[in-house]
Write a structure and sequence with these properties.
The chain is 16% helix and 34% strand. The protein is α/β, with parallel strands linked by helices. The strands form 5 sheets. It has a 21-stranded parallel beta sheet that branches. A 7-stranded mixed beta sheet has the order 5-4-1-6-10-7-11. Strands 28-31-34 form a 3-stranded parallel beta sheet, with no helix packed on it. It folds into 2 domains: 3-221, Spore Coat Polysaccharide Biosynthesis Protein SpsA, Chain A, CATH 3.90.550; 227-436, Hexapeptide repeat proteins (UDP N-Acetylglucosamine Acyltransferase, domain 1, 3 Solenoid). The structure holds uridine-diphosphate-N-acetylglucosamine and calcium ion.
C-alpha cells in the first residue's frame, strides 16, 4: 500500500512565548518539524503533506526544498479539521499516517510497526500507558479489551479519567475510510472542536478493526508545548546520541556533557571526548582522535591520531593525521591542515593550507595563506591579509623559519628555506635560503643618563 503521511504543524504554540512558529524551535539545532520530516521520509512509497497555520509563510520558505505538499488550516478548529485540510492529497487506497510536528523524537521503527498493523479494514493506534494521564485522550476498551473509543480529558467521566492508557495522537488509517469518517465529524464536545479522535468510535461502528501498539519509550511520543518540554527532549535526544556513539566505541568522559548537533558520518576506533564538547554539522573523526574539554567542532574532518586540546574551535576545516591543535586554537572555514602539523595556543587560522609538519605554536594569525611543509612560525606572527578593502594571499614555502613578532604584509611570498628575523615587517618577497629582516637597527646611547627626581 502507498503511504500518505500528514504532519500536523498548525499549532500556535502560545506557551512557547515566541515570535516564531513552535515547530521551528529546535532540538539539536534542527527544527522540530524537520525531525518529524526526516523520520517519515525514510518510509518507502510515502508522500508527505504538511498542514500549516500560524507562521505558515515562514515555514514554507524555510522548507522550500522539501518535496512535500503544503496545505493551510487557517483556523484551528481541532485535529479532525486539521486532517481534513490534507484530504485533497489523499488517495482512497492510501494508508494514511498521522504525525505531529511537535512530537520530534518518534522512531521510525515504531511507525513501521504501526503501519504494519493497519490495512484497508484496520486502523492502528499508537497508545501509551502513563502514570499521570491527565490532559490526554483516554483509550476506552470493552470487556473483551477491544478499543471502543477515545474520550478527551475535558469530556471524560470520573471513571474514564482513571484510565492510564492514552492516545498519542499518532495513527495509521485507511484513506477511504478516513475521508468518510471526517465528513461526519461534529464539534459537539466540551472544547467545541472537530476531534480526530472521534473517528475511533465511527470505525468501531463500521466494524473496522482497531489495533494498538506502544512506543518502546514514552519520550518518543512526548510533545513540545513549552520550553521546559523542549529542554527535556533536547536532553533525551542528546543522551541517546551519546549512547549511540559509545556503542560504536567512543569514550565520552561525561555523556551528560556532550552535544551532537548533526551527524558523525565517519568514526574511527578509540576516539576520546572530554566534557562540554559540541559537534555540529557533518563530522568525521579518525582513529585515536582525542578531543579536549570545551571544544566546538563544526563540519570538521579530523584525521587519525589527532589531539585537539581544550577550548579549541574548528569550523569547515580538514585536519590531517597526527596533528596537535590547541589549547585555545581557532581554525576557521576553508582551512586545510596536512599531517603532523602543530597549531598552538591563541592561534587563529583562516582559509589557509598548511603542509606537513609545520608549526604555528603561539599567538599568531594566519589568514589567506599557503604554507609549505616543515615551516616554523614564531610567536606573534601575523599575516596582514587585508588592506581595509581587499584581501591578499601570503605564500610561505617549505622549510621557512619566521622569527617571532613578524608581520607578513600580503601579497607577499617567503621563499623556500628562508629565515625571517624576529620583529620584521615584511612587505616585499623574501628570497629562498637567505636571512631577511626588516627592523630598525639596535642602538645604545652611551651619553644617556637616567632622569633624577626634582627637589620640590
Ligand atoms: C490531542 C488528542 C488527544 C491526545 C493528545 C496527545 C484530539 C482531539 N486529541 O489532544 O487524544 O491524547 O493530542 O498529545 O486529537 N493541531 C492542529 N490544528 C488544530 C488542532 C491541533 O494542527 O486545529 C495540531 C497541534 O498543533 C498539535 C496537535 O495537532 O501538534 C495536537 O493538538 P493539541 O491541541 O495539542 O491536542 P490535544 O488537545 O492535546
Ligand atoms: Ca486542543
Amino acid at each position: 500500500m502507498k503511504i500518505s503521511t500528514i504532519i500536523l504543524a498548525a499549532g500556535k504554540g502560545t506557551r512557547m512565548r515566541s515570535e516564531k512558529p513552535k515547530v521551528m524551535h529546535e532540538i539539536a539545532h534542527k527544527p522540530l518539524l524537520k525531525h518529524v520530516y526526516d523520520m517519515s521520509q525514510q518510509l518507502e512509497h510515502n508522500s508527505i503533506t504538511i498542514v500549516y497555520g500560524h507562521g505558515g509563510e515562514l515555514l514554507k520558505n524555510h522548507f522550500a526544498d522539501l518535496p512535500v505538499n503544503w496545505t493551510e488550516q487557517a483556523q484551528q478548529l481541532g485535529t479532525g479539521h486539521a486532517v481534513q485540510q490534507a484530504l485533497p492529497f489523499i488517495q482512497d487506497d492510501d494508508q494514511v499516517l498521522i504525525l505531529y510536528a511537535d512530537v520530534p523524537l518518534l522512531k521510525l521503527a515504531t511507525v513501521q510497526r504501526l503501519l504494519s498493523l493497519s490495512d484497508s479494514n484496520t486502523l492502528a493506534l499508537l497508545t501509551v500507558n502513563l502514570s499521570s494521564p491527565k490532559g490526554y485522550g483516554r483509550i476506552v476498551r470493552c470487556a473483551q479489551n477491544n478499543v471502543q473509543k477515545i474520550v478527551e480529558e475535558k469530556d471524560a467521566t470520573e471513571a474514564e479519567k482513571l484510565i492510564q492508557e492514552v492516545n498519542t495522537g499518532i495513527m495509521a488509517v485507511p484513506g477511504k475510510r478516513l475521508k468518510n469518517w471526517l465528513q461526519s465529524l461534529t464539534n459537539h464536545n466540551a472544547q467545541g472542536e472537530y476531534y480526530l479522535t472521534d473517528i475511533i468510535a465511527m470505525a468501531v461502528a463500521d466494524k473496522v478493526t482497531i489495533m494498538t501498539t506502544q512506543p518502546e519509550d514514552e519520550d518518543e511520543v512526548l510533545g513540545v508545548n513549552d520550553r521546559n518540554q523542549l529542554y527535556h527532549l533536547e536532553r533525551v535526544y542528546q543522551l541517546e546520541q551519546a549512547g549511540y556513539l559509545m556503542e560504536q566505541g567512543v569514550t565520552l568522559i561525561d555523556a551528560k556533557r556532550f552535544d551532537l548537533r548533526g551527524r558523525v558520518e565517519q568514526l574511527g576506533r578509540d576516539v576520546e571526548i572530554d566534557v562540554n564538547v559540541i559537534l555540529e554539522g557533518q563530522i568525521r573523526l579518525g582513529n585515536n582522535v582525542k578531543i579536549g574539554a570545551n571544544c566546538v567542532l563544526k563540519n570538521a574532518f579530523i584525521g587519525d591520531d589527532v589531539e585537539i586540546l581544550a577550548n579549541s574551535i574548528i569550523e569547515d576545516a580538514v585536519i590531517g593525521e597526527g596533528c596537535r591543535i590547541g589549547p585555545f586554537a581557532r581554525i576557521r572555514p576553508g582551512s586545510e591542515i596536512a599531517d603532523h602539523v602543530h597549531i598552538g595556543n591563541f592561534v587563529e587560522i583562516k582559509k589557509s593550507t598548511i603542509a606537513t609538519g609545520s608549526k604555528v605554536n603561539h599567538l599568531s594569525y594566519i589568514g589567506d595563506t599557503t604554507m609549505g611543509s616543515k615551516v616554523n612560525i614564531g610567536a606573534g606572527t601575523i599575516t596582514c591579509n587585508y588592506d581595509g578593502v581587499n584581501k591578499f594571499r601570503t605564500v610561505i614555502e617549505d622549510g621557512v623559519f619566521v622569527g617571532s613578532n613578524t608581520q607578513l604584509v600580503a601579497p607577499v611570498k617567503v621563499g623556500k628555506n628562508a629565515t625571517i628575523g624576529a620583529g620584521s615587517t615584511i612587505t616585499k618577497d623574501a628570497p629562498d635560503n637567505q636571512l631577511t629582516l626588516a627592523r630598525a637597527k639596535q642602538v645604545t646611547i652611551s651619553s644617556w643618563q637616567k632622569p633624577v627626581k626634582k627637589e620640590q
